[in-house]
Structure formats: C-alpha cells, structure tokens
Amino acid sequence: GFHLSGTVTEPAMQSEPETVCNVAISFDRCKITSVTCSCGNKDIFYCAHVVALSLYRIRKPDQVKLHLPISEKLFQMNREQLQKFVQYLITVHHTEVLPTAQKLADEILSQNSEINQVHGAPDPTAGASIDDENCWHLDEEQVQEQVKIFLSQGGYHGSGKQLNLLFAKVREMLKMRDSNGARMLTLITEQFMADPRLSLWRQQGTTMTDKYRQLWDELGALWMCIVLNPHCKLEQKASWLKQLKKWNSVDVCPWEDGNHGNELPNLTNALPQGANANQDSSNRPHRTVFTRAIEACDLHWRDSHLQHIISSDLYTNYCYHDDTENSLFDSHGWPLWHEHVPTACARVDALRSHGYPREALRLAIAIVNTLRRQQQKQLEMFRAQKKELLHRGVTSITNLEGWVGHPLDPIGTLFSSLMEACRVDDESFHGFSDFTENMGQCKSLEYQHLPAHKFLEEGESYLTLAVEVALIGLGQQRIMPDGLYAQEKVCRNEEQLISKLQEIELDDTLVKIFRKQAVFLLEAGPYSGLGEVIHRESVPMHTFAKYLFTSLLPHDAELAYKTALRAMRLLVLESTAPSGDMSRPHHIASVVPNRYPRWFTLSHIESQQCELASTMLTAAKGDVRRLETVLESIQKNIHSSSHIFKLAQDAFKIATLMDSLPDITLLKVSLELGLQVFLFIIITVEERNLTQCWWV
Q: Which residues belong to the signal peptide in this entry (predicted)?
C-alpha cells in the first residue's frame, strides 16, 4: 500500500485517562514519506504512536485490511453514490472539512477556476509518480525549532549534548545513504548561522565558548563528509557549494582557528628562521569553518589508482621499481596514496560516514603505509645532512600544519578506522558504528590482532597499524599554531588520543612497535618532535613523552629515559644570550625567559614538562646515575621557579615514603632544587633593586 491509517490506544495511567490517537502514514518505494498523528507531540523524530502503527503493520500484515486507492472506488460509484459519499464525509467531519468542501464546490462550479484547468484530481492513497523525488519524512520545521531552542540555552541544560546527538543522527543518515542527511545538516547550519550571539560576540570583541566552538568544528567536518560523498551527483555538489559559499561570505561566520580578530595578536610574528617561517597572521587570508568543505568540492574520486585501492584487496604491482618520492607502490609492490594527509584522511572519513567501511579500511592502510615510507625517507634525508644541521644548531625545517589538533583530525580518523577493524565483535564493522561514539564504553570492548589485510608486514595487524599511526602523528614535528583555541585544541586532541592508546593492553607485538617508533623519532632529526635539532617554536613533546616513558619503562628502560630526557627541552623559552653551562644553578640568570604572548598555552605546557620530570624522578628512585641525569635535565630545561619548587617537594616525598628507608640521593636532589629556587629569588630581588636604582 501507499497509505496506512489506524488508531493507537494508550492505556490509562494513574493520573491520565486512556487516549486514542489517529495516525496516518504515507509510503513511497519502501520509505515513510509523511506522517500525521493527533497526539500533537512535536519532535524531530517520529512519535511513539507512529512507530507503534508501523511495527504493527510489519509484524501483523494479515490483520491490516487492504483497500484499493480511493480514486478506484470513486470510479466504480454512480452519481447518487458519489453524492451520498461526499455528504456523509462532510457530516462526519463537518467542523473540520466544511469550509474546504464549500471552497472546492465553488471552484469546481466556476468555469475559469484553476482547479478546472487540471485534468483529473490527486489521490494520496495511490502513491507518487515514478518521476517524483522520494525521501524519508523529515519535519524541517521541527528540526529548525529544536536547534534554535538548544542554541538559545547557550550550552546549558545538556543542550550541547543534544546538538551532538543531532550531529550523530546526521552521520547515521549518511551511513544509511539517506538523502535527508544533507537536508538535516543544512537546516542545522542555517540555525547556527542565525544565532544572534555570533554578532554579539563580534561586537563585544569576545570569543565563543570552547564547547560551542567544538560544535562548529563538527559542523565543518560533517560538511566535508557531505561534499566528499563518492557517489553524489554533480548537481547536488553544485547546490551544496553554492550554499557553503553563501554561509562563508557572512561577516560573522566563525574562523577555523577560532580567532576572528578577538584574541591577542601574534606579537612575535614567530621567529624569522628561513622560508618556512610563519607569516604575520594579520596578512594571511582567514579560513572559516566551511573553507575546507568548499575546497573539497573540487575533489573527485575518478583517479584510477585511487579506485583500484578502495575497490580491491588484490591491487599490487610487484614489478614496480620506481623509488621516487611520489611512487605509486612501495618496495613490496603495495599501493601508496600520495595526497595532502588531512585531505586523504577526510576521504577515509567520508567513506566510513557514507557506509563504505571496507573501502575506507583499504584507503586507510594505503595512507599509513605511505606515512611509514615517508618517515623512512625523512630519516635517510636527515642522515645525509646531519653533520651540517648539528653544526648550525638551528633548522628552518618544520611542518606548519600539525596532524594532531588539525580541524579534520586525520590521525584520529585513521586510528578509529583501524581500531574498528580489530574489534572482537565484528558485527559493528558490518553495521559500521562510529568508534568515537563508543569510546566512553571502550574498556568493555576487546581488541585483538585479527587476521590482517595482505598489505601489512608479517606479524602486523590492524591493531599494530592503529597504534603505530597514532605514535607517528603524536611524534610529528609541527609548529605551534596561532590563536588560543587552536593551541588548546592541540593539547586536547593529544590528550584524547593518548587516552585511547592507554585503553589498549600492550603485548610483545605492540611493545616492538613502541620501540621501533621511539628509535625513529629520536633519530629523525628536524622531521620528528623528538629529533636532535628542531624548530624553536615546535609543539613540545612532554605529554607524549610521558606516555612513551611509562609504556617503555618496564621493557626498555634505557630507551624510555633517552626519549623522556630528549623531550624535556622547551626551546621557545631558551635564552638567545651567550651560551654557558646551563645545568648548574649559578647560571640561572641566563635562562630567564622572555614570555612570548603568542604561546597562550605556555603555563599548561610548563606544567606538563614538570609532570614529565616528576615521573622520571619517581621511576629513578634508587638509581644514582639516572637521578643525576634527571636532575641535570631539570636544571637545564625548567625555567619556572614554582615548578622547580614543586619538583623539590616531589623528590622529598618520594625519598621519604613511609614503607622504606629514606633515599639519600633523592634527598640531595630535593635539596639542590630547593637551593636553586632560593638562588633564583635572590637574583630576582637583586635585579629588581638594580632596576629601581637605575630609574632613580
């Protein structure tokens, strides 16, 4: 049938009487295209009565009486029967249909009325024409109203959670290839753009809240998925592009980096080291949250190499010997995919989102193999120029765009895609539930080294590949981005990714991956955040190194300490004054830092540096040589007297634990750090007195 109608009875409750609801549902080619219910409930989703009637029809089809379309029955009636039918219909529903009946009667009797210009009459029970567009019912007015209400609550009362649920619903629609996904996202975006707070914040020169900013990020990421649909029609993409450009041109459209001219300017303009030095942020064209989606409209899926990668597990070329930087296959004959990494990963996210999990997995593996090959090439390049770089002591080599904290979250996308493939319950892989949605209950899930794709080394699995790509991304050397929000996002995403890694139990196979990547990162020079020579304004590695240290310590203590000690540096605070032996307290005056306003998260970074040092002190208890090495690193690299004082306290607490004898070496460490703080205070007071005398 094309139309289902019925009554749904809700039994009486203690405080409410029994209610009977009249429900009508229209169908077209296996989709519910419209619903009405007399309950009056207004919501984005179907009310319980519509669901009940639908389930009743599915489960008990024999108990639902089938009728011919009403137009067929009317055709069988004579004039007297037709008049009786119409009059009885009006009598039963006279209060509802009488005005409409009189209007239609007048129009039919009028020769020149519009209704008489059309042959025949509509019949809602006969179904739509084959040429008519058919899509699932979506109450657009309710979508807009709900989003407007959630936004008006300003992130309170769980409104942020409700908006995230709406975004999850859009992803679910895309996964089911429901055309309403793009329609619903358009309605949501229109309400976001109409939010009066955007203009208010712009006028007042204040920034939007962090939670609200994250909603805009998800909005931009979803539009990337929409326009990268591998099977969308050109006219659809053209329509989306027109709409995106319209939103993009609005003055209050949020910027991708969260600045919108309201945060502190880049007063240092970065340090001018080489051609890759940052440009003045005021001269750079600003990207909005829609810019990447607009750019993605120019991307396509027609590349034959890409099509072979995503469509087959057997795509190899063992006779391929092109070892250039952009070769299509590696030395194993396995396919590689060379594209701007975040863009390539956006393709993976689009495939996953549109219900193509296996295609997404194939592309993810090709991307990771490309990253691993690139990592090896970079190591070889550094070895070739190592002597020169170490002699200079500085480098202009840097990645201006980091992968961790990036708006498109490339590393998170690869990690999620690979982790889904190694879940014990493979049912979710076929249904393709979103890994990020399940992270809250991740501890109850099990991940195994399931039989892997053929394009992996012997002993490797999807799990090892997921862990390795996370380590590659976290260890990537990248420049600190501009703006408070972008810098906070780098910290937040790094911590989120490490949190996911911590939920994986390390076995011997994964420990080998950790060893391999730690060695790579230590030896890869300026291409690695843990390399010997890095750009002065590189994102520090303290948080990542603490995780590496604790993971490696039970298995390879020497490598663990080497990694953590290398990560202790904080080059942006190093003085450009003449170098000296910075490891001793009497040289402390030479490392008093110039506070760079551009590093908005500097206090958080310094606290993470302190945490790393404290972790090493705790682990080194009882080992004189390691304690001395850690002490030297603290004295050389930590410039905050409050953090040095905290470490002195930590060392004292660790040395005097109740269940063991005092550790004399740790007590000496505590004393020396305490003296360093004392000396720092004296020097600061003397400098202040000298300054006052000079002014006098």
A: none
**Distance (Å, whole) CA 201 – CA 469:** 39
Higher pLDDT: 377 or 286? It is 377
* Best CA proximity match to 75, nearest among 111, 130, 123: 123
- According to the model, what pLDDT value does residue 347 have? 97
As a whole-number percent, the residues of the chain with pLDDT over 90 amount to 47
Return the domain boundaries, the chain.
2-63, 79-116, 140-260+287-299, 325-424+448-539
Task: Please name the residue ranges forming H helices in 36-125.
Answer: 48-59, 70-76, 79-92, 94-109
pLDDT digits (tens, 9 = 90+) for 293-305: 999 999 999 999 9
State the amino acid at position 205 in one-letter form.
Answer: G
- pLDDT, tens only, 540-587: 999 999 999 999 999 999 999 999 999 999 999 886 433 333 333 333
DSSP conformation class of 12: P
Name the burial class of residue 277, with classes exposed (0-12), middle (13-18) and buried (19+) by CB atoms within 10 angstroms of its CB: middle
* CA separation for the pair 417, 432 (Å, rounded): 10
Closest by CA position to 606, among listed 643, 561, 565, 562: 643
Of the listed ranges 139-143, 550-554, 641-645, 687-691, the least confidently predicted one is: 687-691
Burial 71-103 (b: 16+ CB within 10 A, else e): eeeeeeeeeeeeeeeeeeeeeeeeeeeeeebee
Burial class (CB in 10 A: 0-12, 13-18, 19+), 649: middle
* Structure confidence at residue 231 as a pLDDT band (50, 70, 90): very high
User: Sign (positive/negative) of CA torsion 449, 450, 453, 457?
Assistant: positive
Give the Cα separation of 540 and 608 in Å (integer). Answer: 9
What tokens appear for 17 in the block?
């009487």
Q: In terms of Cα–Cα distance, which of 563, 525, 232 is closest to 394? A: 525
Distance CA 486, CA 286 (A): 13
pLDDT given at position 339: 94
pLDDT at position 450: 62
Task: Give which of 46, 62, 66 is closest to 54, Cα–Cα.
Answer: 46
The Cα-based distances of 18 to 43, 112, 206 in angstroms read 22, 49, 53
Q: What is the CA radius of gyration of the chain?
A: 33
Q: 3-state class of 6 per DSSP?
A: strand
The answer to whether 500 touches 492, Cβ cutoff 8 Å, is no
Q: Give ∠ CA 123-55-19 in degrees, rounded to 5.
A: 85
How much is the pLDDT for 40? 78
